[in-house]
Structure formats: C-alpha cells, structure tokens
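Q: I'm writing up a methods section and want to include an example of the input and output format. Could you take the sequence below and give the corresponding predicted structure tokens, formatted cleanly so I can copy it straight into the document?
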Amino acid sequence: MKLLPLIGALLLLTAPVQANEEFDEVCITSDVALKLCVGMLCKLNEKGLITPEEFDAEYHEIKLRIKYAEPGWKVYLLGLWNNGIELALGYYPNCPIIP
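A: Here is the clean output for your methods example:
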C-alpha cells in the first residue's frame, strides 16, 4: 500500500515541468494527491529537475494552502502532510523537506 503513492508520483514525473505552476493547487485536492506531492517534490529535487529555490517555494506554498484551509479540512490535511513526509523520507532520506 505504501508503494502506491510513490508509483503515482513516478508516473507524474513524465508530465512537463511547466505544470509546476499549479502544483500547489493540485496537492491539496485529495489525500492521495497530497501524499504524491510530497514524494514528487523529493524525487524532483533528487533528480535535479527543480532548483532548491523552486523546492522551497513549492513546499512553502503547499504549507500556506494547508494553513489557510477550512478548520476541519486543515487538521485532516496536516495529518496527511505529516504522513506523506514520513513516507517520502523513507524513500528519499536526503530530501530537504521538514517534518
């Protein structure tokens, strides 16, 4: 079951990098999307497809969207975000994402 989000993230890596502009919007659309986004950020960073600055910008944008989500949804998203980070760090231990 833990492989499913990472397989999805790897499939998403075939998408053009220009899709990066709406990345943060897509990440909070569902629980699976949020977990995939965490893994994808780490994978893109590891492959050198995004700069450290782009990584930080996307990371902070997602965190802001979670912060300003509706109260009930915010608690749910924070739990998923933390779960996604743990999963991603298991596969990408050098990922600069902060738990």
